[in-house]
Design goal:
- 2 copies of one chain form a homodimer.
- With 596 residues, chain A is of the alpha+beta class.
- Chain A contains 19 helices and 11 strands.
- The two termini of chain A are 43 Å apart.
């Protein structure tokens, strides 16, 4: 397997050239004093080093060894605790955290790229700080000052970790039916009892404490999702002075044996009358989770990109090294027995597909991160509202589309390896096993698609969608005089028209039958993703065209070629998706349950 | 995980109703005396039992335990040797074998369905007899009578197993550069020396002997593929009287640790001056392999179908059991906390996609098997030549298209399971890991696509393709008066027109640039597959429409609904494929190797 090389050149291109981050940061109340390009680039460079030298070397060994569960105690694979100590010493757990409580306050545009590198090197490892950051985000947004001051500094430093406890054996997607109970105590705390499953980082030996955010219901809570509250439940109780007290009644029932991310501990957590504290308002627990979820879902989307980038680097190295067969146009390597397989068009098709997805995905994840940053750091109400709408619309797309492309790219990269791709030793098959979970957790991709189609598009009659369509259309119009860009803006104009047409179609159809939403949703999200990527590629091509002349490095010329491959070869998938969506729900609802 | 239930009803439908096997068998010289529907159905029923009761129960345990390699000796997981003994006692290894030497002489149309059931229950197990059958086929077709009489009876009985030794560390797809040497001995045998990798069933504890078919080169052989010969090299030498003699110089270097099919021993084989015997003519080894490969490639395609069928059965059971959320049109299950997830359109979309692929794939694999049977059992030269052409054309399609759909269906079934799909205990993730290899071995799917596009279509200027197109067009025309069938024949007519158009386009384009073949190939094979499946679905719908009235079982009504889902929802993919193919090779050849 190739050593991981952080794609810093492309990251700078996206950050500085495509999205002009410096201009953005200077314009936002919350970043203008604190963030600049030099800081950003220094952070990214350092993160690239951490990824390559600290996390990459324990990726495969972590997979082979997996986590252990012995006598109630979870231990991570060899090398993980040491790497974690170095990682937290670098302050990485607090990168996006509240600066008043020890966080670094960096925007998500930087955080997203850091996450990409960390997860490219080691998805299992990356999950521990990802969960901590997510839990800290929810605490920072919704908990009392007392809780924030007591818990956040140690979470930002990474000395304590975080976990999100939502799922129960009978309740995953449908959180309205959870059974975990919280009973109020006289001192304002609650006694939490119940079992949670699939808890990532639910326990481990990396940190001194694990701070659980647990969804539970009060005995008299309303039925369904409106009766869910959120509680902070530490594994070890914390004294007034911040020192660790007694163990809380929180224990690990077992850890799961999984297809992949084997070095990430996935726990069954038992809360047997554990002491917890309310976060946010009673019965508003789901809303509190959703603040955090936009960030988490972007981070999971980025896992897809991360694995895909890794797959690309591996497959390119193999395609250059492996000699087999001859180029169709005659030997490229006449003194050797065969040519490197990168001469073959079909191998190039696979590599270019992955490359186009990765660079499109890197731009798209930064674009979504940019909207998250505007929503968080702007002091302009209108601008914030616009950003909130874009975040709401695009979050399910970035989560599902990037992770679906992630699996596709890892499988395709494995295909480049031929038989060696199936052998553990080569490391490529681990990527396939690891990335697969990203399509499932944090809301399956089917749920993301329902969220997009139902709540984010149909429910507001396309209001959020119109913001996106307007932005794209304005981009096309603003560049109508740019003849060199037409090969990208013309397909983009068609793509957004197609998506708008389908959007209108589904909104209308679903007024007649609510089943139209679920019948369209997954294909619609895919269609949205291909359209959004086309927008990203047109934006990137614009910058590349402006800079290609005199570029001795060749970066911009390659960018233009990749853009061309995307719009010509990959965008046609949108034709099929639009056609399929329009056939509606009738065929799939025609069968009774027994006919399956 | 659901217990495996053999889809016997659908198999009978395909065999008897869609392809009227009895009529076919009665018409062929080689089957008219020996095969009838009663025998076929008895065999299929028994195979279904073997699959469910013997092979299914050791599938997951086999995956968990894997094969062992200790001190040069390979052992299979617990229960495998016992199950193998029962399996061979049933005579299953000789099902398609030469009846003069102990085989049962059954047609591949039966064998294909048996293979489907065996592999649905346990892909790892199924590989052992599959490899034996393949090796026996090559020996029967090309070896001397002496070799045939010495080896085949024990291979048909399964007392000895077979293995195919092609790949070397530096030589997989490109067999022309193999290094294994064969030096003639005075007694007519050869001394074989070299190392082979990825040898499925290269050694194990199931049988008393392993008969290797090894590709090697004589010292003075021509360079490249025209200098390859095929040798029979037994693990243990065999005396004149058929008893076992000394161990040959054949040893196992190691076994591979793989992503899946862990209970199938994948060996590094060392031949250190092993004694072997020529099979077929000198330097014609590849041609001898190809006789067998059409059968093996169909069998591997069927592995995709097998896993997909299993995925379907599991996912349907889960979708009926798991309650989560409410139907869009109101509670279906008002006295419970939630509805079974099979009420949700998106879950139905996934299940119906898998179902449509499976039933299409079952028909298509039987269709290809039918051509193999005509080629083998007919005594009419013209009919044989036609069948040979169809086999040549369709083999790469059935291998690649069914295995690609296999992965897609296993991933989709896993998605139905949500988080449980990622947990080993549930068994669904094993399917994904097991089926993945089928896209890689026996010639990667990329190689299948090149074989189809280059050798089977472009090289003969579309001659074989025309046979297929003519058959489909004739079917459409013959049914033009069937108004009820129009919803299937109209899309079929369009699909075959589209495929013919693309075929012509690529033939022309490749005359200008040979790279057009590789640029089109994978998408072309996919387009071919969707078209062939549409043909299968139209044929099945025709029979179903003829029988739907008065069918109390509901089989035919469901068949028609599934056909409708296929043509409406899945066939649109062909639009995108045709469009993508036409963009040609320029974009993918534009990058230098360094630009990747």
């Amino acid at each position: 397997m190739a050593d991981y090389k952080a794609p810093l050149r492309d990251m700078r291109f996206v950050l500085n050239e495509v999205f002009e981050a410096e201009k953005l940061w200077a314009s936002l109340a919350g970043t203008k004093e604190t963030v600049d390009v030099e800081t950003a680039e220094a952070i990214l460079e350092e993160a690239g080093k951490i990824a390559s030298t600290l996390l990459d070397p324990i990726n495969r060994s972590g997979d082979e060894e997996g986590c252990h569960f012995d006598d109630g105690v979870v231990t991570t694979p060899k090398g993980f605790p040491e790497a974690y100590r170095t990682f937290i010493e670098g302050g990485w757990c607090g990168l996006g955290g509240n600066p008043e409580l020890g966080g670094m306050g960096m925007p998500k545009m930087i955080g997203a790229q850091v996450e990409e590198m960390v997860q490219s090197a080691n998805i299992s490892f990356g999950l521990y700080p990802m969960l901590t950051a997510g839990a800290a985000l929810a605490i920072n947004a919704h908990a009392t000052d007392e809780l924030k001051e007591k818990y956040l500094p140690n979470m930002y430093s990474g000395v304590w970790a975080g976990a999100m406890d939502l799922t129960e054996p009978h309740s995953g997607t449908d959180l309205g039916i959870i059974k975990t109970k919280a009973v109020p105590n006289d001192d304002g705390s609650y006694t939490v009892t119940g079992t949670k499953i699939f808890i990532t980082g639910g326990d481990h030996d990396l940190s001194d404490n694990v701070i659980h955010l647990v969804l539970a219901k009060l005995p008299d809570a309303p039925a369904g999702p409106r009766g869910i509250s959120l509680f902070l439940v530490p594994k070890i109780l914390v004294n007034e002075d911040g020192s660790l007290a007694d163990r809380n009644n929180v224990s690990v029932g077992s850890i799961e044996h999984k297809m992949g991310i084997k070095a990430s501990a996935t726990c069954v957590m038992n809360f047997d009358g554990a002491q917890g504290w309310l976060v946010g308002e009673l019965n508003k627990g789901l809303a509190c989770m959703f603040t955090m979820m936009n960030y988490e879902r972007l981070a999971v989307g980025i896992q897809g990109l991360s694995a895909s980038e890794r797959s690309y680097q591996n497959a390119v190295e193999y395609a250059n090294d492996r000699i087999q067969g001859r180029a169709a146009t005659g030997p490229a390597n006449p003194d050797k027995a065969a040519d490197p397989i990168i001469v073959h068009p079909d191998v190039r098709r696979m590599l270019l597909t992955i490359k186009a997805y990765n660079e499109g995905g890197r731009a798209f994840s930064s674009y979504v991160a940019r909207w998250l940053d505007i929503a968080k750091f702007s002091d302009n109400t209108e601008e914030k509202a616009h950003a909130d709408a874009m975040v709401a619309l695009l979050t399910p797309v970035v989560k599902a589309f990037l992770t679906d492309r992630g699996l596709e790219s890892c499988v395709m990269g494995q295909q480049v390896f031929g038989g060696h791709g199936f052998i553990r030793e080569w490391g490529q098959e681990q990527l396939v096993r690891d990335v697969r979970i990203a399509q499932i957790y944090e809301g399956t991709n089917g749920i993301q698609a329902l969220d997009l189609m139902g709540r984010k598009v149909v429910a507001n009659n396309g209001k959020f969608y119109e913001l996106f369509a307007k932005e794209v259309t304005e981009f096309v119009e603003a560049n109508s005089a740019n003849a060199a860009l037409t090969e990208f803006t013309a397909p983009l104009a068609k793509a957004i028209e197609r998506l708008s047409d389908v959007t209108e179609h589904v909104i209308k159809a679903s007024a007649q039958s609510p089943e139209e939403i679920g019948a369209a949703s997954v294909d619609y999200l895919d269609l949205f993703g291909f359209t959004a990527f086309t927008y990203m590629w047109a934006k990137m091509a614009k910058v590349a065209l402006e800079n290609v002349e005199g570029d001795t490095e060749g970066f911009y010329a390659t960018k233009i070629k990749t853009a061309r491959f995307f719009v010509n070869r990959l965008l046609p998938k949108s034709l099929a998706l639009a056609e399929a969506i329009k056939t509606g729900s009738a065929d799939m609802m025609a069968l009774s349950a027994e006919e399956f």
